Amino acid sequence: MTKTIAYGVDVQFGDCDPAGIVFFPNYSRWMDAASHHYFTACGLPPWRAMTDLPGCIGAPLLEIHTRFHTAASYGERIGIHTSVEEWRGKVFIQTHRVMRGDTLICEGRETRALCVKEDSGKLKAVVVPEFIRTACA
Amino acid sequence: MTKTIAYGVDVQFGDCDPAGIVFFPNYSRWMDAASHHYFTACGLPPWRAMTDLPGCIGAPLLEIHTRFHTAASYGERIGIHTSVEEWRGKVFIQTHRVMRGDTLICEGRETRALCVKEDSGKLKAVVVPEFIRTACA
Amino acid sequence: MTKTIAYGVDVQFGDCDPAGIVFFPNYSRWMDAASHHYFTACGLPPWRAMTDLPGCIGAPLLEIHTRFHTAASYGERIGIHTSVEEWRGKVFIQTHRVMRGDTLICEGRETRALCVKEDSGKLKAVVVPEFIRTACA
Amino acid sequence: MTKTIAYGVDVQFGDCDPAGIVFFPNYSRWMDAASHHYFTACGLPPWRAMTDLPGCIGAPLLEIHTRFHTAASYGERIGIHTSVEEWRGKVFIQTHRVMRGDTLICEGRETRALCVKEDSGKLKAVVVPEFIRTACA
């Protein structure tokens, strides 16, 4: 298992729908922010500045799976607890648990492929390098 | 199986990220729009106006699962092809295939629970009534 | 005066806030879409494909000014009526009237500068070429 | 003049457009969050919990005016510096200066009307009470 890193979000009025609760695509938005935050919090440079992996453009999504347990609303502080569940060659599974205190709001599981842009302009998935896995360990 | 209904989206500049492609939470946003559109296109009133199901507040999500096959960008027209895969008591599975012409961009599977607000103010899941299933058939 | 072009929007549940009305930044989002739509509806290519203006990256905003008259909600169809109020050298003023039938919801006035990317990578504002102004007339 | 309160934002990848810079409606979204944050940071309860002003629903916008000076991008930390420029009966002017360090990114000026919901369900603008102005002084 890797480190778990928390990313905090203050839920805003404008994040909520007419039912007064978070409009669910915002959770995907926050999980994406938490994914970026995770690697920099582990001490890595941002994807676009990762000189040890030239041409790196980040880790686009192949798949997301989210389960919603209860609702959150504005004025609340939530924490997104992120880790990497599995390194699988060119692909990795990142998981996010969205908590309000001890309450699990929702949980997401993202499948991402680490990609570089080749000289031709094409994207190519690459095996996650050892230095990235070590930083997250 | 139910009807399949298409909902069209013109992808905008502002829907895209620094990689020049649709930022993925927008797909969730469009699938939610397609979900609402589906039932009205089947001839049903909007959830909040569904007098045959008093107190109906709609069908909140329990779970989403999306697989991304290729990217879309601004200036493109995409269609979201929506149907109900299964009625399962108080819960139903709605699927969305996002197409650009013949190309499958991504596909989503949503698990939703049909809910009414009780006099106490609490939400309660209810069995999907026959008139809704008939309208979609 | 230029042509006026309408851009239609079906207001979605997720565009609305806990007060049940459109969360106002969405109007800016739709006005931006209407701005792009305006020029292509006038017969021009999209900014990034405008070969008669090499390096064109579009017309970034210098200023926006929006007045809100009444609210809109989901399930409603609104139209954004866009024109160019003034060509002013490298800058132009684009106006948007957001209507629901005969009701004026809000009106926006955007100041934009037409820009190209120079070989050095720097952005430079350029005088709006005659062929653009003619297409909109 | 009133207090000035800062609200911090970490700009995310998904907040940026294909030009790699913040898509401008996000500034409106952040200024709205900063507006809410301002009053609670001044020691007031959230609008919906303001028992000293029964029925308060907040302060909807009448007008916004934003000037953009330079761009911001993801990975950057920006601060939104908010104050109330003027109390004008039922209306007040709130200003936001968006800064990255010493650099002014953009500045917004919002005209808002303080509103309560009457028993009939209608909204009514009310004079900003003394206790609110005192809290912000």
Automatic annotation (TrEMBL), chains A, B, C, D:
Signal peptide: none annotated. Keywords: Hydrolase. Its EC number is 3.1.2.-. InterPro entries: HotDog_dom_sf. Pfam families: 4HBT_2. It comes from the Bacteria. GO terms for molecular function: hydrolase activity. Transmembrane segments: none annotated. This is Thioesterase family protein.
